[in-house]
Amino acid sequence: MRRKLLLALLVVCLLATASLIPADAHKQSPDSAVRREVAVTIDDLPAIQANSLKEVTEITRKLLRSLTANRVPAIGFVNEGKLERPGGAEAHTALLQMWLDAGMELGNHTYSHCGVDQTPLEAYEQDVIRGETVTRQLLELKGMKLRYFRHPYLHTGPTPEYKRGLDRFLAARGYATAPVTIDNNDYVFSFIYARAKARGDAATMRRVSEAYLTYMETIFEFFERLSREALGYEVRQTLLIHASALNADHFDDLAAMMKRRGYTFVSLGRALADPAYRLPDAQVKKGLSWIHRWMIAKGQEYKPEPLEPEFITKMYEAARR
Questions:
Q1: CATH number of the domain that 115 lies in?
Q2: 22, 128, 272, 289: least buried by Cβ within 10 Å?
Q3: Helix (H) and strand (E) counts for the chain?
Q4: Sign of CA dihedral 176, 138, 46, 73
């Protein structure tokens, strides 16, 4: 009798425990319970791979609508040279104003997107100054300061001396460097997508966007793991993507993937409060994630990030011919 009573109690306990488990628990990602943070940073404002003011405006409106809907406090990095494109500086400047009106922040990405490898330090510094004229004024009208600088191509200097000189210059002008931990080749996908969209090729657009979202999740997984290996924990991540038609059309999907992986969207300032960003970052001759730079500075082995699918590489090379 006592055994039957114990068995009955055990069954009741098991049933009660089972009732606490969500019905769709088996569908959840293994990472869905992990609490993560990411700052979304968007380069090359007003937009890349757009041939008209109409296209740039569409990209801007779609991106901002999606960022706002997903409650993403993004920062956009501006190439002020792009304000002089067809349609006029005034119209393109109004697009930057839209970013601020939507509650986003703006940063400096140089005037001409120049590379440190081809530009003497003094000329590079002048390009930085030229690239802050309009952006600084717009921010000041909002009661904000121009705080962040993003290196084109993520190249911080061809030599240690150049890097140190540029770091001193940026600090003297009140800039903090905007690092990237989740680096990727979204521009490759974006280039193919923009070409396909221009010719009305919906099948290629769909194929490229599907491959892009799969690739980006692979990239996130890689840098999450790399952060654990390098730091012993997952840093507050900083994601780099570009102001492109691809991201404008599919940021909702990208945001859904990040949420599924347990991410909360935070400001760049919140991300940079993570102590990892105060670690020495190695001078490297190519664009690399800051996680890689921290590892190299400590003498750890570089681990290449995943590449885009081979068919995407081939399509990109064909489209550029």
A1: 3.20.20.370
A2: 22
A3: 12, 7
A4: positive
Q: For the segment 165-217, what is each residue's pLDDT rounded down to a tens digit?
A: 999 999 999 999 999 999 999 999 999 999 999 999 999 999 999 999 999 99
CA 103 to chain centre: 17
pLDDT tier, 34 (very low <50, low <70, confident <90, very high otherwise): confident
Q: Give a yes or no: residue 131 inside a domain.
A: yes
Q: Give the C-alpha separation, 202 to 193, whole Å.
A: 9
Cα radius of gyration (the chain) = 23
Domain count, the chain: 1
Strands (E), 134-283: 148-149, 176-177, 237-242, 263-266
Across-strand partners of 108? 78, 149
Rounded to whole angstroms, what are the CA distances from 117 to 158, 173, 205, 259? 6, 22, 34, 37
Q: Does residue 30 lie in a domain region?
A: no
Whole-structure pTM value? 0.89
Indicate whether 37 belongs to any domain: no
How would you class 83 by CB atoms within 10 Å of its CB: exposed for 0-12, middle for 13-18, buried for 19 or more?
A: buried
Q: Which domain holds residue 48?
A: 42-320
